[in-house]
Amino acid sequence: MALPILTQAPASTGYGQGMSVTVSALAMLPSAVLVFVGGRLTPFVVARAGAGVAALLAAGVMAVGAAGLALGPTEPWVVVVAFGVLGLGNGIGYAICAQLVVTLSPAEETGAATGLNSVVRTIGSASAAPVVAALLATGTAADPAGPFTEVFWVAAAVSVVGVVVAAGLVARTRRTA
Prior knowledge:
Blueprint: H1 2-8, H2 21-49, H3 51-71, H4 76-104, H5 110-136, H6 146-176
Helix pairs in contact: 1-2, 2-3, 2-4, 3-4, 3-6, 4-5, 5-6
């Protein structure tokens, strides 16, 4: 939600990059490609290091991408690179979440567990939108890019929480192995 606003707003706003809709979409394309790549890399990571490590990697990569966006939201090249990194983490995360749900659920509960996973992801997305909107509405003339920085730091913090949760998963899977 924040990225199209950031990339398409006029440069005169103090935060915008003045991209057209087409150029903005092209700037976000590397992230979409890296979501695909991340999903395809996940089986390799799981085979070599385990599902817990893949989850840890996904959250860590997302944290790095979000922090990059927070550090340079007004630089187009930073946005493209950092959002690409975030996309890579998302691709790994989507793939590993599905695998973890199926692997860690009793066989007779797999359908319900995958359904719950979808519901939780939808709730997460739906709850994030008003948080992002509220943060973006706090802009000031003194620091017009500040709200975008805050949004991306919140995303980085949430990803760090994911790292902590995934670290617990790694510890759990090592104890049961």
